[in-house]
Amino acid sequence: MPALAYLDGGPPQPDALDWLLTSRALAYGEGAFTTARIYQHQVIFLAAHLQRLQESLAGLSIPLDVVDWRLLEDEMRALARQQGEGMLKVMLLAGTGGRGYRRDDETQWHRYLHTHDLSGTLDAYQTGVSVWRLDALESSVATPYKHLNRLPQVLYSAQLPAAYPDAIVVNDGGEIAEGIARNLFWVEGSRCMTPPLASGALAGVMRRQLLKTHETRAEGIKVEETREQEQEVPCLKTVQSSINLPITEAPLTLARLLAADEVILVNALQGLWPVRSLNDAQGCLQQWSVGPVTRMLMKCWHPQMGWPVGINEGEPS
Fold first, then answer.
1. GO cellular-component terms in the record (predicted)?
2. Domain boundaries along the sequence of the chain
């Protein structure tokens, strides 16, 4: 299906894009974005994506009233109805204004939404993935917010061998926050954990879904409720009771990861990927099986996202 796009409520017109060339979004990466899964003509985790955008603007000290959130929600729903299945990227862009780095109150904000078909292989779900180990960039400033400046992720991806779909980034102290494009979870016994935001992890939408189901503390800014309340996934309570699964935040070192029972990479676009091995230029550092926690979480979350729920065992690639 051809890509669909809205700019401030309608199809982009070339003669209406002059502002982009002098925009703060282009010059300084000032803005925020989120990427969502479209399945069965709906935006999956719609409320959580709106919340992420609000938190990202707040993290950049941008007043939330620069965006009409109800209108943005309508636009997201409309594009999802037209696209049917695929991905939706929503960008909030700071227009022209200010003097150098200094902002002013006159800057107009723009909404750019576009859809694409979602290409890729099912191997990640059916056999799991092998990932690469990368050293963290010395100059990388980690933030939990999804702002437009993703240069560290671009540089990490440039170092990633073509055969590997993602990497686990390790800093000089042997600490791990996340992958390049995904949050990381690991299992020790009957406990499932993820690095805290303070470690430099991104406040991912899928990460939020997993954590909020198993803990009661509030995170961030409460988003205004959507007009159609999203349904809670009913089987999560069954998962938690059947395998006694608390999901918590905990610091993660490379040594701790290598000793884990299971490793999972997650994002809101492609769901949960079982990690089968970690590799670097010296060879394979560790292999993992796809255990009961990974299997149960895939069975729980993937039906509503349109991804496979099963896994074919075999040797890690």
1. cytosol
2. 5-116, 123-305
